[in-house]
Design goal:
About 75% of the residues lie in helices and about 0% in strands. The chain has about 190 residues and is an all-alpha fold. The longest helix has about 35 residues. About 5% of the residues have low confidence.
Length: about 190
């Protein structure tokens, strides 16, 4: 008697059973938040800031308005990076933390997100207050102070650091958004 053929069955859809769909949704939401913030920064850097400095009657006024926008972008960075960190790591952290020997993609992704939050802290609580302090010492007008004045030179350095921090956070946001796809979903 010939052996009975094995019954072919459709592969079981395990995506709901092991939580794949919720993780995919959380990953997509995290990537969307990061890309939204990076897009807002790009819109400001390439559209709004140049327009402010070309249309407003003084560079000082343009700088004040741009500073207010940057403060709001910093708040958006706190929200974007913080929420992405919670969305991505919330469901995975407990699982990977049990494996003490591994430095897996979840820990690396989390470290990069924490680095971005550290940059947010530096921008919000160190660099931006320093810029405000220097502007106040100069009487509110950077352009009215001689270019070789120590306060104006310090303002230029702090402004450069602020721009570098923003650029690095944009790069981290793009990398983290792309890196979500590499995270395990099991």
């Amino acid at each position: 008697m010939p052996p009975e053929p094995l019954a072919r069955t459709a592969p079981e859809n395990t995506s709901d059973r092991c939580g794949l769909r919720p993780l995919r949704w959380l990953d997509t939401a995290a990537a969307a938040l990061l890309l939204l913030w990076a897009g807002m920064v790009a819109g400001f850097a390439f559209l709004t800031a140049p327009l402010l400095f070309s249309v407003l009657p003084s560079r000082d006024l343009a700088g004040l308005v741009a500073g207010q926008v940057v403060a709001r972008l910093d708040l958006g960075a706190w929200i974007g990076f913080g929420a992405a960190l919670l969305l991505v790591l919330g469901a995975r952290w407990a699982k990977e933390i049990r494996d003490r020997d591994a430095v897996g993609p979840i820990r690396l992704w989390g470290a990069a997100a924490l680095l971005a939050l550290l940059m947010c802290f530096t921008s919000s609580f160190i660099v931006t207050p320093r810029l405000r302090e220097l502007r106040a010492r100069m009487g509110g007008s950077v352009e009215a102070v001689a270019p070789d004045h120590p306060d104006r030179a310090a303002y230029r350095r702090a402004h450069g650091i602020s721009r570098q921090l923003m650029g690095l956070r944009v790069l981290l946001a793009l990398a983290l958004a792309a890196g979500v796809a590499a995270l395990p979903r099991k």
